[in-house]
């Protein structure tokens, strides 16, 4: 099928890149020119227009997901037709799929696996409450946003199996690696089928592989009908008996023994997560965020220090230390040499009278207006995650940025609503690149450099912890851009943290 990249749908949506394809439709990253934002568009294949069943299934997906408003479901924004070709507009989620993450890392940490299972289950619970059964739960249909949160997508065969079961040509609707026994046999299915499929996804997260392999899809489907899943504690000995029991019940072939509904499943998954976290004494990845959402009865299973990020005595101790430091600094402020505007701009320590600008996770964005508008956007929020061990990287430019026909590439931080920053800190694992710091006011992000941007500083990033003084002329700006113009001796640049500082108001 020929690509449609570059065309506009309904005079509004510009198709920028193909990001997925199936037998029924193609998914594009697109740009909504009315609202000036990225979206994802699922466009029905032209050859499907004459297939009334496929056309109805496509329209059914839009109607089904439009009913849902849930933080772990990819939402429908709009629907329409262009030249008699129907399309669905979804929110665009930066990041990778859960399948991509498993392929990249292999088996995931136990607590992280449970955390994703909880988020997916919460999404399915919302769908089931609206009488919508997904029927194709698999890690390929789970997107991980820049903050690590899971979002379920692709309700393309939702509610269709009650009518179709196995299609006339023997093709199973659903993916046989995750198909429930009753679905494989063409029986009517309900929410318990989604629970089984989610159990297989949890198994894959814990082991790095699906439970069954076969010569073809039907052979795999029949294994789901006839064979028990491999013992998770044999394959992953660090999994607790509680987690193993939950997984066994999720994937029980006897519907009377399987979880009857998602709320019952979620309660046990939450208990299992608390138990796993208590056993290890730590939490990893998305588990840290999900633990904060556990009900109070479940959180009581956790150690005190995991329920309370900083104990009271520690808070008092920190306050005492802070007061001492303030007294010392107030009495003995060292000389600091700082260059204004461009130039080296190195500052040995944070100047007196400044404070860090607080920006939320999700406030960073890659910036490549002179190329394909993509510069490892899925990594962008690593520069504001307060973790020096993670980095955003540019693409690889073997002939340098100029050799690629660009004047620069960059990444910006959204300091909403606006702030008069006086200093920027750029941390990097590999210094040596040159960067200009630009700022722009509230409103749409300028589409090119330097139009719309104000130059406020910059120079060579000589050290792993480089700071530049910013000269904003007393103005407040919303966006602060690190515009990389020279990679030095490297073929790429990496930034682990970007922090802004503003003056503390004088009383």
UniProtKB/TrEMBL annotation:
<feature type="domain" description="Protein kinase">
    <location>
        <begin position="13"/>
        <end position="273"/>
    </location>
</feature>
<feature type="compositionally biased region" description="Basic and acidic residues">
    <location>
        <begin position="378"/>
        <end position="389"/>
    </location>
</feature>
<dbReference type="GO" id="GO:0005524">
    <property type="term" value="F:ATP binding"/>
</dbReference>
<keyword id="KW-0418">Kinase</keyword>
<dbReference type="InterPro" id="IPR011009">
    <property type="entry name" value="Kinase-like_dom_sf"/>
</dbReference>
<dbReference type="InterPro" id="IPR017441">
    <property type="entry name" value="Protein_kinase_ATP_BS"/>
</dbReference>
<dbReference type="InterPro" id="IPR008271">
    <property type="entry name" value="Ser/Thr_kinase_AS"/>
</dbReference>
<dbReference type="InterPro" id="IPR000719">
    <property type="entry name" value="Prot_kinase_dom"/>
</dbReference>
<keyword id="KW-0723">Serine/threonine-protein kinase</keyword>
<keyword id="KW-0808">Transferase</keyword>
<protein>
    <recommendedName>
        <fullName>non-specific serine/threonine protein kinase</fullName>
        <ecNumber>2.7.11.1</ecNumber>
    </recommendedName>
</protein>
<keyword id="KW-0067">ATP-binding</keyword>
<dbReference type="GO" id="GO:0004674">
    <property type="term" value="F:protein serine/threonine kinase activity"/>
</dbReference>
<dbReference type="Pfam" id="PF00069">
    <property type="entry name" value="Pkinase"/>
</dbReference>
<dbReference type="GO" id="GO:0045717">
    <property type="term" value="P:negative regulation of fatty acid biosynthetic process"/>
</dbReference>
<keyword id="KW-1133">Transmembrane helix</keyword>
<feature type="region of interest" description="Disordered">
    <location>
        <begin position="341"/>
        <end position="391"/>
    </location>
</feature>
<keyword id="KW-0812">Transmembrane</keyword>
<feature type="transmembrane region" description="Helical">
    <location>
        <begin position="310"/>
        <end position="330"/>
    </location>
</feature>
<keyword id="KW-0547">Nucleotide-binding</keyword>
<feature type="binding site">
    <location>
        <position position="42"/>
    </location>
    <ligand>
        <name>ATP</name>
    </ligand>
</feature>
<keyword id="KW-0472">Membrane</keyword>
């Amino acid at each position: 099928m020929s690509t449609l990249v570059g065309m506009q749908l309904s005079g509004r949506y510009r198709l920028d890149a193909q990001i997925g394809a199936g037998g029924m439709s193609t998914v594009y990253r697109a740009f909504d020119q009315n609202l000036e934002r990225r979206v994802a568009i699922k466009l029905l294949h032209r050859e499907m227009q004459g297939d009334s069943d496929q056309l109805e299934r496509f329209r059914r997906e839009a109607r089904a997901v439009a009913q849902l408003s849930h933080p772990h479901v990819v939402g429908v924004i709009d629907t329409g037709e262009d030249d008699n070709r129907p399309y669905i507009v979804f929110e665009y989620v930066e990041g990778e799929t859960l399948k991509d993450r498993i392929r990249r890392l292999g088996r995931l940490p136990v607590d992280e696996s449970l955390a994703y299972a909880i988020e997916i289950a919460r999404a399915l619970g919302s769908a089931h409450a609206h009488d919508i059964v997904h029927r194709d739960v698999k890690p390929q249909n789970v997107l991980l946003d820049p903050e690590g949160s899971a979002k379920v997508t692709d309700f393309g065969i939702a509610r269709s199996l009650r009518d179709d079961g196995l299609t006339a040509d023997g093709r199973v609707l659903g993916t046989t690696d995750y198909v429930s026994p009753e679905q494989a046999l063409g029986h009517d299915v309900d929410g318990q089928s989604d629970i089984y499929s989610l159990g297989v996804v949890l198994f894959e997260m814990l082991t790095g592989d699906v439970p069954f392999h076969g010569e073809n899809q039907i052979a795999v489907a029949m294994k789901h009908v006839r064979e028990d899943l491999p013992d998770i504690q044999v394959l992953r000995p660090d999994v607790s008996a509680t987690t193993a029991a939950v997984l066994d019940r999720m994937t029980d072939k006897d519907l009377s023994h399987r979880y009857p509904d998602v709320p019952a499943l979620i309660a046990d998954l939450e208990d299992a997560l608390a138990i796993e976290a208590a056993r290890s004494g730590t939490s990893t990845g998305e588990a840290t965020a999900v633990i904060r959402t556990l009900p109070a009865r479940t959180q009581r299973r956790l150690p005190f220090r995991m329920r309370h990020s900083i104990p009271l005595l520690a808070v008092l101790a920190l306050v005492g230390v802070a007061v001492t430091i303030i007294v010392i600094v107030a009495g003995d402020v060292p000389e600091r040499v700082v260059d204004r505007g461009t130039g080296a701009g190195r500052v040995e320590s944070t100047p007196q009278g400044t404070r860090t600008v607080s920006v939320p996770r999700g406030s960073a964005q890659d910036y490549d207006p002179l190329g394909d508008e993509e510069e490892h956007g899925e990594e962008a929020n690593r520069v504001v995650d307060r973790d020096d061990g993670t980095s955003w990287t540019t693409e690889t430019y073997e002939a340098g940025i100029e050799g690629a026909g660009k004047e620069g590439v960059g990444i910006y931080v959204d300091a909403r609503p606006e702030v008069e920053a006086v200093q920027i800190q750029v941390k990097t694992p590999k210094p040596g690149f040159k960067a200009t710091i630009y700022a722009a006011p509230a409103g749409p992000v300028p589409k090119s450099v330097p139009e719309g941007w104000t130059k406020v500083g910059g120079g060579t990033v000589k050290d792993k912890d480089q700071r530049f003084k910013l000269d904003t002329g007393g103005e407040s700006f919303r966006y602060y851009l690190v515009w990389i113009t020279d990679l030095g001796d490297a073929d790429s640049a990496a930034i682990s943290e970007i922090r802004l500082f503003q003056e503390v108001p004088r009383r």
